[in-house]
Amino acid sequence: MRLSTVILPIHRWAEGQKIWRRAEDLGFHAAYTYDHLSWRSFREGPWFGAIPTLTAAATVTQSMRLGTLVTSPNFRHPVTLAKELISLDDISGGRVTLGVGAGGNGFDATALGQEAWSPRERADRFAEFVPLLDRLLTEGAVTQEGVHYSAHEARNVPGCVQRPRIPFAVAATGPRGMRLVARHGQGWVTTGDPKLYEDGTPEQSREALRRQIERLGKACADEGRDVAELEKVLLTGFTPDRGAPLSSLDAFVDFAGKHRDLGFTEIVLHAPIPDSDFAADQEVFERIATEGLAQLG
Fold first, then answer.
1. In sequence order, what E strands does the chain have?
2. I need a surface site. Which of 136, 161, 212, 281 has the fewest CB within 10 A?
């Protein structure tokens, strides 16, 4: 199992760079950030762009992987996103993972002046977005006419450092999304079942995650792919456990062990943010980072 972290892009870089450097010093496999224009309770405070933040992080780290959890079509277009990702992959020396999802109905959904898309339209757009982005990152020139996204002689030379392209970690729970994971993903991302967040139990959450992994396996089988090829990533903080995994080293070991048994290969923890939903003891967080996986045995 791998252990990674999410660093929200809320810090001016004079302070933020220290947090990214510290994440690498602590030995995290990867450090991700959210790709939003603004987000939830942080909307009234500082919030910086994901790609510039990751680019800056690439210049102050050496080996830790970097990525988004997650990018979505809400305000992105595959043609421009591909160019930014190829540049980021080059600057980082091939350390980028793209977490990508269908998006939701939060602040990003209307920031460009459009009406919020229905769940069906989000799914339709996602089904175009991911395959086109795949082509743009693997082919030197792409022309494609789509219902929602098109490209006309879009050139991306020299392509990604990572071959054939940067890995995709696709966030999905429904059947259409699972098919995209099976066809285009090198990893799968979930936050659990959102219906259980308020009133569910940790046991119910694990059962829901088990069923998600079963559906992922079926989608892979239908595509003739071995589900074992995929990284299975759990972004914590959105299950009924909430912040429990960061309450103590023992609590993390218990949480991580139970989810490893379900088949997860990567656990992602939020870097502590005081006076927020992600408040946690920094010393406990750092102890988990340096000792947690060893305790799993």
1. 2-6, 30-33, 65-71, 96-100, 141-144, 151-155, 168-171, 187-190, 231-235, 266-270
2. 281
